[in-house]
Amino acid sequence: MPPFSFKLQATLGKARAGQITTPHGVINTPIFMPVGTVASVKSLDSNDLVEAGADIILANTYHLGIREKTLKALQASGGIHDFMNWQRPILTDSGGFQAFSLGSKFPHNTRNFLAGITDDGVSFRSHLDGSEHFFSPEYSMELQRVIGADIIMAFDDLMPDATNLPDGKTSLELTHAWAERCKFDWEKNYRQSQYGKYQALFGIVQGALHSELRQQSAEFMGKLGVDGVAVGGETIGYNTEGTKDVMAWIEDILPREKPRYGMGIGRDLSDVAVAASLGFDMFDCVGPTRLARNGSLLVGDVACEGESFRIESKHPRGRLNIGRQEFSADTRVLQENCDCATCREGYTRAYLHHLYKAKELSYFRLATIHNVRAMLRVSNKIREHILANGEEE
RNA sequence: CCGUGGGUGGCAGAACGGUCAUGCAGCAGUCUGUAAAACUGUUUCAAGUUGGUUCGACUCCAGCCCCACGGA
């Protein structure tokens, strides 16, 4: 069996159902990937994640990389899977997003206050202690080999949507050059982690809202010779219409036989429907876990008809804000017929409201379990629908 | 009973002879490849009490009530 493979099983319109095989098991797509930045999907343990049906989770190279002791312990454990006691697939982001997200918090000196970008890489100031760190494509790859995920990401330069065409070209050239350097480094190290396991490398399509840049980038990443192609950028996962536009520009250019990863898509249930219908096989977002902690519970389900996946919910945007007064006396189960552990065990809205208002720790787990399962259930249902009604490959 | 200090919104706690304290709570909203158990907005509710001075008093004055500490 190959260490990494993608099998496209069926298509329905642009939507795809497939199967990714990795050294740590199989991923059925389309799938939502819960985010566990610091080797933890906040408030959940591995049992919770297995129970919720998570085939794969994310971790972040920047957050683990700037914690030297953590990294050493992780290394001594034989890699992230054993370190966090999660034996299913893991994907690590390269740290490229942090140059964007850390820098953009400071509009006075956008992108350069905490993050300084040169051709060689990005210098970060740690958000933990202010210490300086430098990430080059090679260093990101090295860290990702130490972490030991099944899928690793190329180090990219995420340009803001507002980037003009000349600056966009410069940024895209950087992303492409860095992707080549990542690939070179990856091959030099036999495409393996420090622990001898195969690591799939994905390239990232950038180009902001310039169709010619996006197409050029899709062409480049499609031919780079890596295992999968991701689509990133400020708009992706943030602006649904923009995400649709970008995908429409590049959809025909992306190789059919490689997995397509929409970076940052999946804030709530409707995003699952959007991501799947656009043909993304994998997508991730901090939304569901963060929304859970902040009181927004994803209550709804998907109705699949033909090529349309529609989210049905009694609540605005499919979100039930559990902190609202109206739920203080609502003794119904959070969501009728929900198959998450929280709902199956019968936890009521009134009780979850109470836990949330009282800032009880158990709230975070119960709420996160529900949101993660809701995302995965919708992903699974769409997959089943594509397999049952789509064209077999 | 004497002395001293003090009574400000649901709670905590400032300033000021005239204009928004503020925080928490409450109520609602927002969440990008996680600097997020975070952030944003916001209603009502004040001056222990009775009088007085003043154009105007939460603020100054007096009586009464209450609280804290010390003393008998």
Structure notes:
This protein is an alpha/beta fold. It has one domain: TIM Barrel (Alpha-Beta Barrel), CATH 3.20.20.105. The chain contains 14 helices and 19 strands. The protein has helices at 46-52, 61-65, 68-76, 80-84, 96-103, 137-147, 165-188, 211-223, 240-250, 269-277, 287-293, 341-344, 349-357, 361-389, and strands at 5-12, 15-22, 25-29, 31-34, 57-60, 90-93, 115-117, 122-125, 132-135, 151-153, 200-205, 228-231, 260-262, 282-285, 296-298, 301-305, 308-312, 319-321, 391-392. The strands form five sheets. It has an eight-stranded parallel β-sheet. A four-stranded antiparallel β-sheet has the order 3-2-1-19. Strand 16 (301-305) and strand 17 form a beta hairpin. Helix 7 (165-188) packs parallel to helix 8 (211-223), helix 10 (269-277) packs parallel to helix 14 (361-389) and helix 11 (287-293) packs antiparallel against helix 14. The longest helix is centred in the last third of the chain and has 29 residues, at 361-389. It starts with a strand and ends with a strand. The model is unreliable at 104-113 (pLDDT under 50). The structure holds one RNA strand of 72 nucleotides.
Strand content: 15-25%
The count of DSSP E runs of length 2 or more, i.e. the number of strands, is 19
What's the total helix number? 14
Structural class: alpha/beta
> Largest sheet, order of strands side by side?
4-14-13-12-11-10-6-5
CATH topology: TIM Barrel
Rough outline: globular
* Low-confidence blocks of residues: 104-113
* Spatial separation of the terminal alpha carbons: 20 Å
What is the domain total for the residues?
A: 1
Level-2 CATH architecture: Alpha-Beta Barrel
Q: Whole-number average pLDDT? A: 94
Helix percent band: 25-40%
The CATH homologous superfamily corresponds to Queuine tRNA-ribosyltransferase-like
- Give a quick account of the main beta sheet: strands, pairing sense, barrel closure: 8 strands, parallel
Quickly name the level 1 CATH class.
Alpha Beta
